[in-house]
Amino acid sequence: MRDKNGRWILGYNQFLGSCSILDVELWGILNGLVIALDRGFDSLIFLSNNLEAVQAIQGSYSRVLNSILVRRIRQLLAKPMQWSIHHVSREDNKEIDELTRMTIDKKKEACNYLECPQYGLGHNLK
């Protein structure tokens, strides 16, 4: 997660076992949303390199509109706040890939990162 100026606030990951790539992305968005709401954020920007997840949350991807994960995300996003979700290329989402690799390598429970992973990624999001 980043603040409105693009500075790193918090990263998170969790090993989910065997599930689809779309479900992994939706779980990541849901968990991030819960963390952000618990911390009192009222303005959120989600970036995802999974177009299906972006479209599902926006309501334009019918295959998963009835997914429990999508419904829960949309329910939380109905709270009074400003939010947007954007599709980004894999190259522009390297931090997320690094957090994902860290999860797969360690098969850990949920973990929060107060600092950006050491991947040369401490830069601001532009």
Automatic annotation (TrEMBL):
- Signal sequence, start to end: none
- Please list the residue ranges annotated as the RNase H type-1 domain: 1-102
Q: Write one Gene Ontology MF term.
A: nucleic acid binding
Q: Could you tell me which InterPro entries the record lists for this protein? A: RNase_H-like, RNase_H-like_dom_plant, RNaseH-like_sf, RNaseH_domain, RNaseH_sf
Q: Which domain of life is it from?
A: Eukaryota
Entry protein name: RNase H type-1 domain-containing protein
| Species of provenance | Gossypium schwendimanii (Cotton)
Lineage of producing organism? Eukaryota, Viridiplantae, Streptophyta, Embryophyta, Tracheophyta
